[in-house]
Amino acid sequence: MIQAWLDLPPFGTFVTLAMLYYGVTALLIAVVFASPLRGPIARFQGVVAPFFSSVAVLFGLLTGFLGYDVAERNRQATRAVQAEAGELQNVYTLSIAAASDMRDIRVALKDYTRSVLKNEWPTVNGFAAPPTSIAYDRMLTEISAPAITRDSGAAVHVALLSSAVRVGTARNTRISLSTDRTSDLKWISVLLLGIITQAALALVHLDKPRTTMTAALTVFATGAIVALGLIALQEDPFSGIFRVSAVPLEHVLSLPDTPELPVSPALPSPPKP
């Protein structure tokens, strides 16, 4: 149920939270002022404000922990994408700086990047796309060619292989984070604590007029809706409003397969005697 709620579009996420917390607000007002339980509940008048604060602190702490978990996962996803794009650019730069012609490596690198953006980025299933795996294997095959050591040296070849392996590691991290979700138990705990906090807020306002209690419960409900809604929108790092950007990988695609080497400016002729 929690995952189905988190998969809703932003409008549905906020509407669901509004129905929950504003509904609880209306229910508490009805129970306190217009139900047969009004008399027994009135006996609890005199509950002091610090009672509400103790429950609100628990709600705030759990909400903070939940927000930190979601934000940390998004930071890890961003670092994984940047690491993957950075290592791809390292391979590209090494292929340019080497003495031998490595155009085939650059073409394979671009094919892999294009496959990531087309076949893996739009999907969120936690599995590597077969076409992207084939493109990665083809890139490794080109980089593993023995002729690179002979033509460009062992140091260049080792650096190319190391960068290619780190590309695969960053890719695996990105794929695993695409389906990593916060535990349903954490979300349920925070949502229930929000309701309990509303009940505590109603208890400390039993001796106040209906309008005062309604205003207090509404303000708290609005704050909970905004805070939990914004956290929920960041639950999936690769979709939604706050998704990780694919610009670093798109930049790799913009690199030319055969870059033009800069031409040294001609030296001025010496003056004639």
From TrEMBL:
> Which residues span the membrane?
12-35, 47-68, 187-206, 212-233
The UniProt entry, under InterPro entries, shows:
DUF4239
Source domain of life: Bacteria
User: Which is an annotated Pfam family here?
Assistant: Bestrophin-like
Keyword line: Membrane, Transmembrane, Transmembrane helix
Presence of keyword rRNA processing: no
| Protein name per the record | DUF4239 domain-containing protein
* Species, as recorded: Rhodopseudomonas palustris (strain DX-1)
